[in-house]
Amino acid sequence: MRRRTVVASAVALLVTGAAVSTGVAFAHETPQRTGKYGTGRAADRGGMVFVQSNDPKHNAVLAFRRAADGELTPAGEYRTGGRGGAQKDNPFDPLASQESLVVDRARQTMIAVNAGSNSVTTFRVRGDRLTDRHTVSSGGDFPSSIAVSGSTVYVLNAGGKTNVTGFRLTDSGLQRLSGSTRELGITNDATPLFTASPPQVGFSPDGRHLVVTTKSANTIDVFGVEKDGRLSAKPVSTRSNGDVPFSFVFDRKGHLLVTEAAQSGVTSYTLRADGKLDVITPSVESGQQTLCWIAPAGKFFYGAATADGSLLYVQNTLAGTVEGFRVAGNGSLTLVTTLRTGLPVFADGSGMEGLVVW
Questions:
Q1: How far apart, in whole angstroms, are the C-alpha atoms of residue 286 and residue 172?
Q2: Maximum Cα–Cα distance for the chain, whole Å?
């Protein structure tokens, strides 16, 4: 097999007095994935990769067995009972979001958005199979991103009167959390414009805050999370250090890293207990274009990828492929596999979006 090495451009970030090595690498400059990423060395013994088709007729989760060397082989298709969606005027990214397909490993549960039918679907993960499908209303228009903390789940609805709506994760799927919906103050069409939709919702590592990025308002909004899972009435809103904040992750020390699509930068923040954000390192730019997605692998962070310890996967929506890379100790990436069959190719504004490494 042909192997290709990509070297990560590493920079030092000053985080509460400690130098942290952070990398941003671009295996592709095309749109990639959204979804959860693992933190262990599961890649060394194989596992699964799940891809959300986002098909506008019948959304599905496509399963692939993952060998120890990263190779992928088809293992089945599981329809969600809903429809995929595509935002208006999107150049290559139908949902314009991160975390449209996520897993709760503790509960062996996968959650997928159905943007075209305003619903959310849960599955039980049983080895290489998905079972016990349950689909519920998302609480708004065009659900595009999901956040999970314990048994509490919040869904970002990016269309209409944009909002986040809460659920409890139970053995029977998701149950709506009464009084949990919080509007974000941005009104779109039911099928939103690409540039106007909020791209991600996510919990802080301790579960005490819920973070939402907004592209058009250029803000990072932080809600407080009560013990019952409900949110503060209003968020603490911080103007993004760089324009068009898109996706985010937290590092191992709880610092927030946010991508900025306008200049392809990443800014790191300290998240205070009161929800305010303090800039640590402002807008480290990649030199590429339209950085939207970010995922950690060891001590490095990569744009447009999802990782599980020593392997990192990239979803190429335009080409209809998924590529797997081996992550070296210095952050360089070696191409080990390219999945070219069984995946939808971007066409007429629609394409796959959502990738989980299990």
A1: 44
A2: 55
3-state helix/strand/coil string of the chain:
CCCCEECCEEEEEEECCEEEEEEECCCCCCCCCCCCCECCCHHHHCEEEEEECCCCCCCEEEEEEECCCCCEEEEEEEECCCCCCCCECCCCCCCCCCCCEEEECCCCEEEEEECCCCEEEEEEEECCEEEEEEEEECCCEEEEEEEEECCEEEEEEEECEEEEEEEEEECCEEEECCCCCEEEEEECCCCCECCCCCCEEEECCCCCEEEEEECCCCEEEEEEECCCCCECCCCEEEECCCCCEEEEEECCCCCEEEEECCCCEEEEEEECCCCCEEEEEEEEECCCCCCCCEEEECCEEEECCEEECCEEEEEECCCCEEEEEEECCCCCEEEEEEECCCCCCCECCECCCCEEEC
The CA distances from residue 271 to 136, 199, 239, 255, 256, in Å, are: 32, 19, 14, 7, 7
State the average pLDDT for the chain. Answer: 85
Indicate yes or no: pTM above 0.85: yes
Segment 102-145, tens digit of pLDDT: 999 999 999 999 999 999 999 999 999 999 999 999 999 999 99
Minimal CA–CA distance to 59: which of 118, 129, 145, 126? 118
d(CA 119, CA 82): 7
Across 162-175, b (16+ Cβ under 10 Å) vs e yields: bbbbbbbbeeebbe
| CB proximity list for 196: less than 8 A, separation 6 or greater | 186, 188, 215, 216
User: Is 177 in contact with 164 (CB distance < 8 Å)?
Assistant: no
CA dist., res. 39 & res. 24, Å (int): 17
Q: CATH number of 5-357: 2.130.10.10, 2.30.30.320, 3.10.490.10, 3.10.520.10?
A: 2.130.10.10
